[in-house]
Amino acid sequence: MSTAIKDTKRITVKTLQTMADKGEKIAMITAYDYSMATLVDMAKADVVLVGDSAANVMAGYSTTLPITLNEMIYHASSVVRACKRALVVVDLPFGTYQGNSKEALCSAIRMMKETEANAVKIEGGEEILESVKRILSAGIPVMGHLGLTPQSINKFGSYAVRATSEQEAEKLVRDAHILEDAGCFSIVLEKVPSSLAARIAEELKIPVIGIGAGGGVDGQVLVLHDMLGITQEFSPRFLRRYLNLGEEITDAIGRYVNDVKTSDFPNQSEQY
Length: 272
Ligand code: KIV
What we know:
The chain is an alpha/beta fold. 43% of the residues lie in helices and 14% in strands. It is built from twelve helices and eight strands. Helix 3 (34-42) packs across helix 5 (69-82) and helix 6 (101-115) crosses helix 7 (129-137). The longest helix is centred in the middle third of the chain and has 17 residues, at 166-182. It starts with a helix and ends in an 11-residue tail after the last helix.
């Protein structure tokens, strides 16, 4: 084992709690494959999320619903092989934990056994409480996910900001406490008003990670392909694009195609 790998200290769920307690922000980002996850880990992201957004960005589905447990296991095991430092959290996909808590536990155990990931993430509050408890009872850390929960898109009909009514906001606060009391190590809050997210982060002891939830939370998560500008069509207000990689990749490949067609590639020094 190289010294670099041996000396790399793995982030754990306890590290995240310590960071939140000290007010140190947590940086989480998605990855779905070995090459990208290697770069994300080298850039010192604290948490790598193998999100079921893989259904959108890797497979081209319009929702996250179609991706299967086997497909998520494939993505997660590739990411785990890449990450030496980051905590790797994996989404349990739609239909693998909502049916009953025994099925939820079986899905989580398969995920942990076959990928060696560090934790699972599941969407929902009170309605999935039994599943959360059962997974936790097997010693598997669970990250909750509230607010905009893309696996429920057919119930809500849009990806609009959630919890804008008082009633929905109160349910969100209640669900957040229920997940914390059950033993979740963290929750993601997606696309909710920043004042509400800040209130929840203030009330909860566990780290609250936001996406479109403002800066008053303990950390942020973005989808890798969105922040790198690989996906072009998705432009919500909360997304900060750090690169326009989609354009750069298309340009580079266009130049290669042109070089092949004009017989510029390969040249004398690029052959044997
Ligand atoms: O699947 C995903 O990428 C997610 C993040 C948007 C939080 O759940």
